[in-house]
Design a protein that fits this description.
heterodimer; A: 235 residues; alpha+beta; Helix Hairpins; Heat Shock Protein 90; three-stranded antiparallel sheet; B: 83 residues; alpha/beta; Rossmann fold; three-stranded parallel sheet
């Protein structure tokens, strides 16, 4: 990459960060001023709204910090031998109630005996699966479904997250892993995402010598496919 | 008669804040969260003022502003410095 292009990308990155930080800060500032001006009353509800905005801001800053560390090559991974399937099942389990609440079926298509020992950071893998589960929650219409499958394929474990509508165009599919990229219509912050989840997911998969890719799903939504090398697997 | 103000803003919390301030000043306030319905709404309701975000889902604010000027030719518009 040329120096000029690199510099342009860096500037774009800073501009995007500033833009993303501005809205939660503007909301916080506005809501606090409304309290001071007597436009809003201090109620548990208004305080909760301020708190939610602070959490959103913190999450954004944490995500940015993690990406920066990853860029610098100083994001530390504490790797050990672990069963990836177990981590995946734990993540799925912790999201069951939320999927139920939002009326989205969560289907686990993983055979009972499957085992995949990988050399990995348990916490980061958990973060990877959590990001994908949260994306499906945000971007799947109520009444739809998310199907999660895992199988051993040679020296790899292949994990698939496949959800129903709305779908993603081919043009968008190719750009999903770019920083701050959001599909038109999902830009509204009420859906929650800043467009960093898949960037972070890709960093995590890369750090485990794996491959992550996005495709249109047969269920009508998005398919995220991950391949991570295993050194001891059982189908 | 109270003056009608339309807010077009895709961030619900910012829209609600603006609306609360304007209501406290006794304006009649309406809010739309995306761009596609704005033109038809304005034709029908003829607001005295529109507070229009530029980056909007559906149709962007500049385009909406141009469209409104074709049937409200004397519209003045002011840009916020941040945009």
């Amino acid at each position: 990459m040329t120096l000029e292009k690199h510099e342009k990308e860096r500037r774009q990155w800073v501009a995007d960060i500033s833009h993303e930080l501005r809205t939660p800060v503007a909301v916080l500032q506005g809501e606090i001023e409304a309290l001071l001006d007597g436009i809003h009353n201090s109620t548990p509800e208004t305080i909760r709204s301020l708190h939610a905005e602070t959490l959103r801001l913190k999450r954004l800053v944490d995500d940015l910090y993690q990406i920066s560390l990853s860029d610098l090559g100083t994001l530390s991974y504490r790797k050990e031998n672990l069963d990836l399937v177990e981590t995946l099942r734990d993540s799925i389990q912790s999201y069951r109630a939320e999927f139920d609440r939002q009326g989205i079926a969560l289907k686990e298509n993983i055979s009972g005996d499957i085992k995949a020992i990988v050399f990995a950071d348990r916490e980061r893998l958990g973060q990877l699966f959590t990001n994908l589960l949260e994306n499906s929650l945000r971007y799947t219409d109520a009444g739809g479904m998310l199907e999660i499958g895992a199988k051993i394929n040679g020296d790899f474990i292949m994990i698939e997250f496949q959800d129903s509508k709305p779908g993603v165009s081919m043009e968008d599919v190719e750009r999903l892993f770019e920083r701050f990229y959001r599909v038109e219509g999902s830009r509204n912050r009420s859906s929650g995402g800043a467009g960093l989840g898949l960037t972070i997911s890709k960093n995590i998969v890369d750090a485990h010598e794996g491959i992550i890719s996005a495709h249109p799903s047969l269920l009508g939504g998005l398919l995220i496919r991950i391949r991570i090398p295993v050194f001891e697997g059982r189908q | 008669m109270t003056e009608k103000i339309l807010i077009v803003e895709d961030e619900p919390k910012l829209a609600a804040l603006l609306a609360d301030y304007l209501k406290a000043s006794r304006f009649e306030v309406f809010t739309l969260f995306e761009g596609t319905q704005v033109e038809a709404w304005v034709r029908e309701n003829k607001p005295s003022l529109i507070i229009l975000d530029i980056m909007l889902p559906g149709r962007d604010g500049m385009e909406i502003c141009k469209a409104i000027r074709t049937f409200f030719p004397y519209t003045n518009h002011y840009s916020d410095s941040k945009n």
